[in-house]
Design brief:
elongated; 2 domains; Rossmann fold; about 325 residues
Length: about 325
């Protein structure tokens, strides 16, 4: 065989090998791209990163996302009430290609535009814990019935106090959120009074924080030493209220109640700092949210409306007419440390 023919054949073989290798590399690249394109991204945007309720929600979402084989991107506001931070987080999640976004809105009406933008882009949006206003701004809401939880708290306080004349302090959360409004109104309903009733001794904004709960309670006690019942938006605020009551020497004289069901709060009930709390289930909200996004990604089916994730009254001093569980049950079912 002539030498030039051998060289040409060799060059042809090398060329064929290079083309085949190129096709293989391209195929692998396309396969990797398809895998990346098919990855389901779920966004979780909570009010803060430090509140034990939202910590548990994030942990539950992370665990469920791992189990379901989807990618979770978790973001949060810098503080309770950081509406702008949550809006920016959702913007980022839309850009990242999230298939679904789970959000606990800091302001129930302040995120409507960004939620609409997400839904218009084909993103499933589910509110967790806190409903939007209007409620149908999102595809669905998975949350505690916060009005009913407030009713449970107020009804317990009134029944446990018997015929004692009430002087009630209201330690509210953050204005503009449906959770705050529903729990506040529910407590009044359960207690059997209306807004403006003379038995309401005063109110303070706590943003659900322990330090602000203590300051608010101290200010209210300074104005009215007859306070004998305290509504609190959550257990951190209740812990602050207890510290203030103790400083005033009134810790054993006031009907202090709350809502949350965190392990620290249940221990406060067990130790007698709080008379009762209403447990809610953040892990159930998060798990159901992840499942809904996974189903939407697979089938296009969307959840709708309000789904009540439940609430349970926790106390070691039950009253007639109200269903409750004791702190032993509470410690088995609580969340947080």
């Amino acid at each position: 065989m002539p030498l030039h023919y051998i060289r040409a054949s060799a060059r042809s073989a090398v060329l064929r090998g290079s083309i085949a290798a190129g096709v293989l590399v391209l195929g692998l690249a396309l396969g990797a791209g398809s895998a990346a394109a098919s990855e389901v991204i779920v966004g979780l945007v909570t009010k803060t990163e430090v509140n034990p309720f939202f910590v548990k929600m994030r942990q539950a979402a992370e665990a469920r996302a791992k189990e379901k084989g989807v990618k979770l991107i978790a973001r949060a506001g810098k503080f309770d009430g950081d509406n702008e931070g949550q809006v920016a987080a959702i913007e980022d999640l839309i850009s990242a290609g999230a298939k679904g976004i789970l959000v606990t809105p800091n302001n129930s009406s302040g995120m409507l535009d960004i939620i609409k933008k997400a839904r218009d882009a084909g993103v499933l949006v589910i509110a967790l814990d806190t409903a939007t206003d209007p409620a149908d701004a999102v595809d669905a809401t998975f949350a505690t019935d916060n009005f009913e939880a407030g009713v449970q708290q107020g009804a317990y306080a009134r029944k446990a106090m018997g015929d004692t004349k009430a002087a009630v302090a209201m330690l509210d959360g953050t204005p503009g959120g449906t959770v705050d409004t529903f729990r506040h109104d529910g407590y009044l309903k359960g207690f059997g009074i209306a807004e403006g009733d003379p038995s309401i001794a005063g109110a303070a904004i706590t943003n659900g924080a322990q330090d602000k709960g203590q300051i608010g309670m101290e200010n209210l006690l300074s104005k009215n030493g007859e306070i004998n019942a305290v509504y609190t938006i959550n257990e951190p605020a209740a812990a602050g209220a207890y510290a203030a009551l103790k400083a005033f020497g009134k810790e054993g004289e006031v009907m202090l109640t709350s809502i949350d069901g965190g392990c620290a709060g249940v221990r406060d009930v067990k130790d007698g700092r709080i008379a009762a709390t209403v447990m809610q289930f953040p892990y159930k909200m998060a798990t159901m949210g992840i499942d809904a996004v996974v189903e939407y990604a697979a089938t296009g089916k969307k959840p709708s409306g309000f789904v009540n994730t439940g609430s349970v009254l926790i106390t070691d001093k039950p009253v007639d007419g109200l269903d409750s569980k004791d702190t032993a049950w509470g410690l088995e079912n609580c969340w947080g440390d």
